[in-house]
Design a protein that fits this description.
single chain; mainly alpha; Arc Repressor Mutant, subunit A; Tetracycline Repressor, domain 2; 2 domains; 9 helices; 74% helix; elongated
Length: 180
């Protein structure tokens, strides 16, 4: 005769639990890096924030730098999706600029820690993330500059130093993220 068991509580799959903890680590790290900068945060700080042991962090990330890079990769993925507004709307300069600025403000408002971590890295000269910025941001920036140059050639706007304009747009909208 088989023994019937009562169904127990639904247990979270181990992989779901690991993914959840990894996300908690990334979010805590992002928040702390945004508030204190890379040098002001230790793995112990992050572990305490998550409520886990430092060894658990090291299971997911081999070092503080590896964790920081992973945070920045996630930030960059989101940021580049907003940065695409200019090239995606190149046929309409007003719409392109409105969407770019609105997207940057939305990014800063909806992802304030992302915005601050990225800004801190860029402002400090990108000591830990320079290659990734060169590989991923510069091509997008060059594409945006080409659009501005195209607009100038078409007589839609005056010829400007588009790289400086992009820095001005980025930094002025970043101020809202930092001081809002």
């Amino acid at each position: 005769m088989a023994i019937k068991r009562k169904p127990g509580p639904v247990r979270e799959k181990r992989s779901d639990s690991r993914e959840r903890l990894e996300q908690e680590i990334l979010e805590a790290a992002k928040r702390l890096f945004a508030q204190r900068g890379f040098g002001g945060v230790s793995l112990d700080h992050i572990a305490r924030e998550v409520g886990t042991a430092k060894q658990n962090l090291l299971y997911y990330f081999s070092s503080k730098e590896a964790l920081y890079r992973r945070v920045l990769h996630g930030v960059l993925d989101v940021w580049l999706s907003y940065m695409a507004a200019i090239t995606e709307n190149a046929d309409n300069p007003e719409r392109a600029l409105r969407r770019y600025i609105a997207g940057k403000l939305r990014f800063s408002r909806e992802h304030p820690f992302d915005s601050r971590v990225y800004a801190n890295e860029v402002i400090s000269g990108a000591p830990l993330f320079a290659q990734e910025i060169r590989d991923r941001v510069l091509p997008a920036l060059r594409a945006d500059i080409a659009v501005f140059n195209q607009w100038a050639e078409q007589g839609v706007c005056r010829k400007v130093d588009a790289a400086h304009l992009m820095v001005i747009l980025w930094s002025s909208t970043q101020a809202y993220a930092d001081f809002a």
